[in-house]
């Protein structure tokens, strides 16, 4: 069991989870590159965390995120609501409004959200809702209200982002395939990286990806690796997905790597994984620019 998989009963404040001095990427990222999975947290005095959170991150505000992106040469970002802020999207929305053209968001909302609230989020740059099925983070709750919510946001051209463990895919497959909008899978569907890419679980995930409504984020090796940096055990999974579906892959930093205790990921090293998993200029242009622009900015 990886450290982050141990259920936590104490949501006491975590130590800082991001590298204070990330290395500079050793390659030149394409113009217009997008970080399609990052978060902002707090500051807690302005944007309090959810009372039902399972972990308490350090404040990780938008200024620190902006500084990281400047350092890495990344021009746009998709800010994803994480469980520690529950369904209060205020910190994420505030970050979107600070750089409206360069930002898009993915919200976590109550199924009872009003149309006016959805419209207001759309105005701020939100283009998706996230369904989190990780039992160590949330009580996933029933599926039917989520299907109804998906139908409502699909009318506005939004998509659904799903976060699940590979072991839960069989029971979620028919729900996911029935959603009336694009479905973006976080962190490669969290494969068991101790088993190879030919394992039954990853084979089932690749079969799901044959459906053209499905997209996948191929970053986050730091969370999936059993060996740690440079994450060689995760590389084949990401490279396989980029080769399978070059037009439906996205990449993100996962900054500030919340709820991680194993090590402080170096974001420069994470970005250096991109030329390994996407070896051609064309593949990198799709992964970091064309695909996220199509999904979030068109
Ligand atoms: C991530 C991963 C995690 C946390 C969340 O919503 C969240 O709290 O996403 C995790 O603990 O695996 O996407 O950053």
TrEMBL record:
Compositionally biased intervals (Basic and acidic residues): 1-13
Domain Amidohydrolase-related: 34-296
Protein name: 2-pyrone-4,6-dicarbaxylate hydrolase
InterPro entries: Amidohydro-rel, Aro_Compnd_Degr_Hydrolases, GLI/LigI, Metal_Hydrolase
UniProt KW keywords: Hydrolase
CDD domains: PDC_hydrolase
SUPFAM superfamilies: Metallo-dependent hydrolases (SSF51556)
Native source species: Roseivivax jejudonensis
E.C. no: 3.1.1.57
Region of interest called Disordered, as start-end residue ranges on this chain: 1-26
Source domain of life: Bacteria
An example Gene Ontology molecular-function term: 2-pyrone-4,6-dicarboxylate lactonase activity
Pfam families xref list: Amidohydro_2
């Amino acid at each position: 069991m990886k450290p982050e998989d141990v259920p936590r009963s104490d949501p006491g404040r975590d130590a800082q989870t991001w590298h204070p001095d990330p290395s500079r990427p050793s390659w030149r990222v394409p113009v217009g590159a997008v970080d399609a999975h990052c978060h902002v947290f707090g500051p807690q005095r302005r944007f309090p965390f959810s009372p039902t959170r399972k972990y308490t991150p350090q404040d990780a505000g938008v200024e620190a995120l902006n500084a990281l992106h400047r350092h890495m040469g990344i021009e746009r970002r998709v800010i994803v609501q994480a469980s520690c802020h529950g369904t209060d999207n205020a910190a994420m929305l505030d970050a979107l409004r600070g750089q409206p053209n360069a930002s898009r968001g993915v919200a976590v909302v109550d199924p009872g959200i009003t149309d006016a609230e959805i419209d207001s989020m759309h105005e701020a740059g939100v283009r998706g809702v996230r369904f989190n099925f990780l039992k160590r983070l949330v009580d996933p709750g029933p599926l039917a209200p989520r299907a109804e919510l998906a139908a409502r946001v699909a009318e506005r051209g939004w998509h659904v982002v799903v976060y699940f463990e590979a072991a839960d895919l069989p029971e979620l497959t028919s729900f996911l395939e029935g959603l009336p909008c694009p479905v973006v899978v976080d962190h490669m569907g969290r494969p068991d990286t101790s088993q190879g890419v030919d394992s039954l679980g990853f084979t089932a995930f690749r079969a799901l990806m044959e459906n053209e409504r499905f997209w996948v984020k191929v970053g986050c090796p730091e969370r999936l690796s059993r060996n740690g940096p440079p994450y060689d055990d995760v590389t084949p999974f990401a490279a396989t997905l980029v080769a399978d579906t070059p037009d439906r892959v996205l990449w993100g930093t996962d900054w500030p790597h919340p709820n991680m205790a194993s090590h402080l990921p170096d974001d420069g090293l994470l970005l250096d994984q991109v030329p390994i998993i996407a070896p051609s200029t064309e593949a990198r242009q799709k992964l970091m620019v064309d695909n996220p622009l199509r999904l979030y900015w068109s």
